[in-house]
TrEMBL record, chain A:
<dbReference type="InterPro" id="IPR040079">
    <property type="entry name" value="Glutathione_S-Trfase"/>
</dbReference>
<dbReference type="Pfam" id="PF00043">
    <property type="entry name" value="GST_C"/>
</dbReference>
<protein>
    <recommendedName>
        <fullName>Glutathione S-transferase</fullName>
    </recommendedName>
</protein>
<dbReference type="GO" id="GO:0004364">
    <property type="term" value="F:glutathione transferase activity"/>
</dbReference>
<feature type="domain" description="GST C-terminal">
    <location>
        <begin position="88"/>
        <end position="221"/>
    </location>
</feature>
<dbReference type="Pfam" id="PF13409">
    <property type="entry name" value="GST_N_2"/>
</dbReference>
<dbReference type="InterPro" id="IPR051369">
    <property type="entry name" value="GST_Theta"/>
</dbReference>
<dbReference type="InterPro" id="IPR036282">
    <property type="entry name" value="Glutathione-S-Trfase_C_sf"/>
</dbReference>
<dbReference type="InterPro" id="IPR036249">
    <property type="entry name" value="Thioredoxin-like_sf"/>
</dbReference>
TrEMBL record, chain B:
<dbReference type="Pfam" id="PF00043">
    <property type="entry name" value="GST_C"/>
</dbReference>
<dbReference type="InterPro" id="IPR010987">
    <property type="entry name" value="Glutathione-S-Trfase_C-like"/>
</dbReference>
<protein>
    <recommendedName>
        <fullName>Glutathione S-transferase</fullName>
    </recommendedName>
</protein>
<dbReference type="InterPro" id="IPR004045">
    <property type="entry name" value="Glutathione_S-Trfase_N"/>
</dbReference>
<dbReference type="InterPro" id="IPR043377">
    <property type="entry name" value="GSTT1/2/3"/>
</dbReference>
<dbReference type="Pfam" id="PF13409">
    <property type="entry name" value="GST_N_2"/>
</dbReference>
<feature type="domain" description="GST N-terminal">
    <location>
        <begin position="1"/>
        <end position="82"/>
    </location>
</feature>
<dbReference type="InterPro" id="IPR040079">
    <property type="entry name" value="Glutathione_S-Trfase"/>
</dbReference>
<dbReference type="InterPro" id="IPR036249">
    <property type="entry name" value="Thioredoxin-like_sf"/>
</dbReference>
Amino acid sequence: MVLHLYVDWLSQPCRAVGMLLMENNVEHQVHDVKIMSGETRTTDYKKVNPVGKVPAIVDDDFHLGESHTIMRYICASRNLPDHYYPNDIKQRARVDYWLDWHHMNLRFGSSRLIKANFFGPIHKFPQQTIDESRKEGEDVLKSSLTFMEETLGKSNYIAGGNQLSIADIALASEVAMLPISGASCEGYPSVQAWLKRISTEIKSWPQVNATLDQFLASKDK
Amino acid sequence: MVLHLYIDWLSQPCRAVAMLLMDNNIEHQVHEVSFMKKETQSAAYKEVNPAGKLPSIVDDDFHLGESHTIMRYLCTSRNLPDHYYPNDIKQRAKVDYWLDWHHLNLRHGSLCLIKANFFGPIKQLPQQTIDELRKEGDNVLKVALGFMDETLGKNNYIAGGNQISIADIALICEVTALPVAGASCEDYPNVQAWLKRTSTEIKSWDQVNMVFNQLLASRKK
């Protein structure tokens, strides 16, 4: 049975899962679910994923959410090349570390800024909410990018090693999204070099990022 | 070589790692590091964990942070009983799901309220900051506990299965800390039943929670 993938291409975790599947020619059927149109809150979608989040997969009736969990599951169930999620206990722990770190650091900082600077005007949040989100987002993003910069100054890939892992894919999707909130990784040369490296090594990068790129281009007008 | 464990007993993720170690009689040396006294910011501690966070382990010179990563690493490197982090791909994915879900759901809700209601007065945070944190914490926690209650209505353990996993250990430590945040799981009967059940199954529960229980008792006076 084919794997069903539920994504919004504007979502960073969705793009990460999309890239892993496409890079490895894992057969799948894409179902476009638009967050901003409320499609994740429908009764139908709640049957796919009861928490109403994307990405989600349904693999032969097995329902799964959370992008890092999905990527680990695909690595194991499809026996993907070892470098994505190494079998070596310590190297795997390094990948796990960055996947876990991501949630409350890069991801959190980035999403606070997206909330303040992108959704704030659209949803007309109170100024107090916007200010607090922006302040927190800037602080957390700065310390996250600084930590990544230190690490990538010593390593081509975020978890060390000689090839990219699912941690690189997850983090690169987030860094590529920073412009949407008016942030960037300018001032972090090792992060910029890494982003360029990852986005060239991932063959499906242009295809998976097409919707985001169009969106960013339309914002600049 | 003995495993070195760096923790603050008042920290939920620290207690989770300690319980896993003690319940499985894994030899380790405890180093107490006080978060409130800013001992995590010292140059000495940054050599243990450059991110300056707790918990950390140093296992024969291998440094690791992030409690979920540490627990996964302990399960594989010490060959712990399968139920903690199952080898079955789908069952493992369910445990991974709840570990990943935790960061930006239960943990985030709980932390917002701890910042607002516990640290707010201590650090004299601006009222605007406290209000925003409290609002977000209340909303996120309500959704998180609601989802856990639904899940635990159908399952004795958060990831399904017949025995406790590291996901139960991580989440139970957070739920028991809710009173510090001025919150509780009173309105969630399945969560309460699970809390009671799992806390009796964790042999080291009382020992690991000793310092924390003293804090709770002193706050009630």
